[in-house]
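so my prof wants the structure for this chain in the tokens format not the other one, which i didnt know existed until like an hour ago. anyway here's the sequence
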Amino acid sequence: MTSVRGRVSRLPLRIRLVAGFSLATLVVLLAAGTFVYWRVEYALDRGLDSELAQASRTIDPLIGADGTVTNRSAAAATGVAWQVLAPDGTVLDDGGPAGASAMVSPRQLTRVGSTARTYNVGGFLPIGPEPYRLRVTRSAAFPEHYLVVGVRRDHRDEALRELLLQLTVAGLGALLVTAFVGERLARAALRPVEQYRRRAAAIAAGSADLRLDVPPQRDDEITRLGHTFNDMLSSLKESLERERQFVSDASHELRTPVTLLTSRVQFALRRPRTQADHERILSELRVDLDRLARLTDQLLEVGRVDAGIGSGSSDMAAVIGKAISQRRLADPARTGDIMVTLPTQPLPVGIADYELDRILTNLLDNAAKHGAPPFQVTTDEPLPGWARMTVADSGTGMSPDLLATATQRFARADEARSRPGTGLGLSLVEALVNQTAGELRLCYNGRHSSHGRPAPVECLHGPEMTVTVLLPTVHARSKG
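here's what i got, hopefully its the right format
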């Protein structure tokens, strides 16, 4: 059985569809043909049975005690073959076309009770020499005698054989027509699939800009598959472009510290040096290695966020309050640089507390490196279903060109390249915000740059550099 299924599964899909369609049609035709044949046979047999019942009622009163018929002319007037049999099958009297041999066997006689039994003798297929339909009853006056009356079935059998032939021919014709129509329909239905396969093969061969030709006026399973496939190709292309850009940017950014490390090592090996010189050089190398380690950690974190890893929920107000307290404890000298405004009610958002802490930390680190204190951190609920966090500083802000590209990986202003940093902070913040279906806004001097899902919240206007993070609350996300 398993081998048969394996062989069938290796057949082309079109052949399997046509075979299944034809098999289902064959079952329906057989059921319909059987029902029609049974109804016609029943109607024909009912007519013969009526004739036999009338003959039995005429002949039965004529049977004597010795099993002979007292009025043979009346029995002959019925036009049927008749016999009177003893329980052992001996013919006591007969008339009509019936001969001296019993038309039924003793075993069949034993099956006759108080009601009549009907038997068909003589072959239907192949055609027998004397096809009869018989009715066997016990004599009403002498129950030890059996009356057998029968009529020939020639016309009845001929009609049924003709019906069977016509049903067979019509069924085979219908099966051939349905198989042909099914094959045409399957071919037409699978033609777009074959076109999609060829186009997909061309795309796999390197033609990444190709897309499936989906008819715009149709909306069925195949066209929806084509639209889904095209959307998937577009997403894959965008993902591939992002990965290529990431690898290119990472290679460019890593080249500088690696080159610097190589140069320092080569310079240290040019001549013999004292222990103090080696310690100084090792201290410089350690600084460069620390920068390289931080850059690698940030690259790994960006990759983790891009992969969609991380989920959970947290209270924005509680997380921000805790993060600011820890930051002040870590650097008491700069406690007054950060001013915080927090709501009294919780703000539940669909992001893990450590990820929200990472967003705030990156924004404050970015403001400390490229802006100027005081730093204003505000958290509120501008609209039902949305939580807002803003980080503003009093620095020189960003140029209009940088506002639009600041969230790109390794994007930095020319004057900021001499300051510490990797250009990955805002990129990581954008990835975390997008992961939560929120919006990141960069605003300075009346200019705004939006990244992520637009939120129905107005931008905050002010002269200072402001970064706004808008996240849907947990309740709003569950409704969506």
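also thought this was worth mentioning. The longest helix spans residues 154-204.
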